[in-house]
Amino acid sequence: MQTTGQSWLVLQLTNSPFKLSLVSTVQWTPVLFLTLYAGVVADRLPKRRILVVTQAALAFLAFVLGLLTLTGRVRYWHVLVTATLSGIVQAFDMPTRQAFVVEMTSREDLLNAIALNSSIFNLARVVGPSLAGLVIKLTGTGWAFVFNGLSFLPVVWAFAVMDVPDRVRPKQRGAWEEVRTGLAYIRSTRIVLGTMVLLGVISTVALNFNILIPTLAKMVLHGDSSQFGFLLSAMGAGALFGSTLLATFGGRGPQLKTIIGGAVLLGVSEASLAFVRGFYPSAVILFISGAAMVTFTASSNTTIQVTAPDELRGRVMSVYALVFAGVTPIGAFLTGILAEGFGTSATFGIAGGVAALTTLVMVVFRQLPSPREIAESGSMSDKPSPAGQTEPGAKGEG
Question: Which of 169, 176, 293, 323 is 20 to 30 A (C-alpha) from 236?
Fold first, then answer.
C-alpha cells in the first residue's frame, strides 16, 4: 500500500516519470552506501533487536507521510525526505532480515523457508495494491500510508516476543577489515560471485516496476488508481504463484537452473510489454513477470545463503542487499530518463532485452558453474577459506 500510494501521490503532484524515478533514487541511495557496514552490524548485534528498531522506524515514517497527505500539506519534497529516511532504515533492515531467516530455520529447509516468506510477502503484494487503489479512490492517498503504519505494529510485537536465541559474534577487528573479509569470500566463491553479478545487472535494468507500472497504467493504458492497483496485484499474484511452487517443489541446494530460467523468462515477458496495449493482456504478462521475478530472486537468495558460512552471512547478505536493492538509485534514474525520452513501452523492451541477453551471455561464457560442477565439487560448505581470510572461530568458506 505504501509503494502504491507513494507512486500515485508523486504522479498526482508532478505528473512526471522522471520525478517518480527520482523518489526511488533517493530512497535507495542510502542502501548503496550504508548496506556493507550494516552487514557488519548484523553480524555483531542480535538481529531480532535490530529488526524491532527498524520496523518501528518505518512505521513512524509511514504515519508522518500519511499525516502530511491527510492535512493537505504534502509537497513533493516531503516525499523525497521521507523516502530518503526510509532508505537509511532499509539499509540496516534488509541484510539483517535476510540473514535472520537462517536463525529461524535450518539450512536443509532454507529454500522452503525463503519461498514461504516470499509467498506471504507476495500475498501482501496481491492484496495491498488493490486495497490501496480502492482506498485512494474512496478516501484519498493519505489513508494508504496510515494503514501501512498500523500494519507495522503487529510486526514489531512479533519480533519482540519471538523465542529465538540472540546470536552475537564478538567484535574481532575493525569494521572495514570485516567488510573486506566478506568481499574476499564472495570473490573467491564462483557460484556466489556469478549469482551476485547476474542479480546486480537484472536489479539495475529489469526490476524497476515501481516506476514503469504506474506510467503504464496512467500514460499508456489511460487507467485510474484502481486499475493501477489491479496491475500491481496481477504481478503480485504471479509472484505468489511462483513462490508457492518453489515452497512446494524446490530443492535444498544451490538453484542454478531456476536462477537461469527465472531470469530469462523475466526478461522475455518484460520485453513483450513493449508491444501490448490492452489492459488485460498487460495484466497477464505482469502475472508471468511476477512469477519469473520471484523464481529468480528467491533462488538467488537461497543459493547464496546455503553457500555462505554462518559467521559471514550478515556481510554476504549485505552485498546481496546492495546488488538487489542498492543499485535501485542507478536503475531508477536510468529508467526514468528512458521513460521520459522514449516512452514506457520502449523502456520495457530495452530492460527486458538486456536482462535476457545478459543471462544468456553469462551461461554461454560459463560465468556460473553448471549443476554438474556443483555436484562434483561436493558440499559448498566444505571448502577452506581463502588464505589469510579465515576469521577466528570460522569453520571455512561455508
Answer: 323
